[in-house]
Amino acid sequence: MSQPSWIQKLMHRWKLGSAFQVIVVLVVFACTGFTVLFIKKPILHFLAGEKGDSITASVIYYLLILPLYNVILLAYGFLFGQFNFFWEFEKRFFNRIFRRTKK
After folding, report:
1. Maximum distance among all alpha carbons in the chain?
2. Does 30 have pLDDT greater than 80?
3. Beta-carbon neighbour count of residue 73 at 10 Å?
4. What is the DSSP letter of 52?
5. What is the mean pLDDT of residues 60-86?
6. CA 74 from chain center: how many Å?
7. Residue 82: is its pLDDT beyond 90?
8. Average pLDDT over residues 20-49
């Protein structure tokens, strides 16, 4: 018996219906990453002025980028017709971050 391909593994892990849907989800992640990359410099210029970079601006940027990344991810998910997948993905992500340990 042959091992499943990486696409099949992602289909199973993410509970997706087709290999095409896996590709679309990966494209959404790629688009989100590139968007965050392209908006970094303008955001740092906005936060730090003409200098364009400072320790304070960088710290503020990294604090703001997590929620901004998630909003952009949902927007691309919507544009590519995968909003429900990314909405569930976001809920799982934030549940892991803010999960309280039970005693």
Report:
1. 61
2. yes
3. 22
4. -
5. 94
6. 8
7. yes
8. 92
How many angstroms separate the Cα of 32 from the Cα of each of 18, 29, 39, 77? Answer: 22, 5, 11, 9
How high is the pLDDT of residue 93?
A: 85
Is 27:35 a contact under the CB 8 Å cutoff?
Answer: no
Q: What is the pTM of this model?
A: 0.82
Query: Helices 19-48 and 55-79: crossing angle, nearest 10°?
Result: 150
Q: Residue 49 has what DSSP assignment?
A: G
Q: Which of 15-19, 53-57, 66-70, 92-96 has the lowest mean pLDDT?
A: 53-57
From residue 8, alpha-carbon distances to 2, 12, 23, 96 in Å are 12, 6, 11, 25
Round to whole Å and give the CA distance between 86 and 80. Answer: 11
Residue 25 has pLDDT above 90, yes or no: yes
Exposed / middle / buried, residue 87 (Cβ in 10 Å: 0-12, 13-18, 19+): middle
